[in-house]
Amino acid sequence: MIQMINKLKKNQKGFTLVELIVVLVILAILAAFTIPAMLGFIDDARGKATIAQTRELYVAAQSAASEIASGSKLTPGTGKVAKGGSTVATDTDDSAIKIAKKTKAMVNSDFDGEVLVDVSVGTSAAPTAELSSVVFVDIDGKITKVQFVSADGKYRSTVKPTNNGTSDTSAEVEKIK
């Protein structure tokens, strides 16, 4: 009897069909749990990358605005620097164009979109897929808000200074449908 079992074991090579199906089912169950989690990580990473770009734009705009304002009040108006570097003044304000040019120059290697600077008391414009960023500056040269739309047009982020007297900022990101 033992000799017969040993003979069967020697002749039996490989796996049975049932064993293979069980392994495939286990792998399918594991994939069903992990793939949606991985997709969520990718979306989170893209949103965080958009916030990082917005913060970079915020720092560059704050540096440009404080350098151009340097003790004097800015005149209200808007200015835009397009992708190719051409400038468009929607008002007669020269300081908005200067801030937009300087900001675009500081982030040019990492950022290919347009920069619109709005020097005003309030906030009016909002970025769209065509206009990738809007920088809001008050007449004292302080950044009040930066809005940015990612290159693929799927995420919009906003960075604002906090009101606690420090240089801290708050950031929000939303998925555009």
Shape: rod-shaped
| Nearest-integer average pLDDT | 77
- The assembly state of the depicted protein chains is single chain
Count of distinct structural domains? 1
Strand content: 15-25%
What is the number of strand segments? 7
**Biggest sheet, open or closed, and with what strands and sense?**
7 strands, mixed
Helical fraction? 40-55%
Whole-angstrom Rg: 28 Å
Number of helices in the DSSP assignment: 3
Instruction: Give the uncertain stretches in residue-range form.
Output: none
Sheet with the most strands: spatial strand order: 2-1-3-4-5-6-7
Distance N to C terminus: 71 Å
Class computed from helices, strands and strand pairing: alpha+beta
Could you spell the SSE succession in H and E letters? HHEEHEEEEE
